[in-house]
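Cytochrome c structure dump, as promised
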Amino acid sequence: MKEGTASRIAMIAAIGATLVAWGLQDVRGATQEDAGKDRIFYELQTIEEDPVGYRRMVKQALEGHMGAYSLILIKKAPYPSHGQSHVDAIAILGLQHKDLYPEGSETVGTRPEIWSQPDAFAAALEKTSAAAAYLKEKYEEGNHHLILNALTRLGESCENCHNRFRADRN
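structure tokens r here:
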């Protein structure tokens, strides 16, 4: 994926989804002739399927929510009312991990062990999902110390999986 493509796709999709939700446009049937007046919708239809780009965006979203919630938790961001939305997003995204590695996406950002050791990889993903659910559970209980421990557990789970299954970043 080219530099900036993911952010371009995200921006186009967000604008398009908002307009569709408002009932302002229907993206079905957009043609090249529509590019002048309905450029967003035409561009959405011309984007190729990109499971690796999608995986990266979901992972970045998870990382962003974990980082933002960490700042709230250690009182470095004055938005405690945002905590619930970050924790909910973390729990949801944590469950989606198992879907992010379709066959054919093994050449980008992953080690071959994901596919040669599928049971070990599935177990690592399950630990991350369980850690994300545990964070939500502890958040709902409201004990700051237990929430911090749960967030640490989740971070360690992510790190362990990355160390074993993610290709080195260049």
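The mean pLDDT is 82.
lmk if u need the other ones
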